[in-house]
Amino acid sequence: MHHHGYAWLGEKATFDEEGLRRRPGAPPTATSPENVVQRYRRAVAEFPESDVPPIQTAHWLMKPASLIRGTRVEPKEAGEWLGLQLAEFAPRFASKGDREVTRLVLLVKAAVERLSWGGDVSLGHYVTGNAFHSVALVTCSPNRAEPTLPCPLDG
């Protein structure tokens, strides 16, 4: 088992576009409304390559390996990476409470605990300037939520 790190910084409006963040579901039928057909086509075309965080954290594993920002074997090492990501952006977090050091330390501690039993971690913060910062750690080989998803590094 290992843990892949993912990070994203972008416009809040882009993050709010669920179509970019949701993997394609079942294909539309011949009687599906045109907007359903268009939404499905867009998801098929854009979801696999989009760097926008997926709605379900485990679905990062469906994305290209080039989006991985680091792989760690030990939960503690993955937590250290998470701590560095949070520390880098914390001064820009829009909420004063989100910037508090004690809170950030507790988030990292909780993340290490979750990773140790095979869970995933996904955190997001609004940052100044109408942007959103997302950071995730996804347990791989296997993933607890989606055990059939292969490791992106194996492809």
SSE topology sketch:
Elements lengths: L1 E10 H4 L2 H4 L12 H13 L23 E3 L2 H15 L11 H16 L4 E7 L3 E10 L15
Antiparallel strand pairs: 1-2, 1-4, 3-4
Helix pairs in contact: 4-5
Distance between the termini: 17 Å
What helical percentage do the residues reach? 25-40%
Whole-number average pLDDT? 95
State the secondary-structure class: alpha+beta
What's the gyration radius in Å? 17 Å
Q: Oligomer, anyone? A: single chain
Sheet with most strands: 4 strands, antiparallel
Which spans have pLDDT < 50 for at least 5 consecutive residues? none
Tally of helical segments: 5
Global outline: globular
What is the tally of beta strands? 4
What is the H-and-E element order? EHHHEHHEE
**How much beta, percentage-wise?**
15-25%
Main β-sheet, spatial strand arrangement: 2-1-4-3
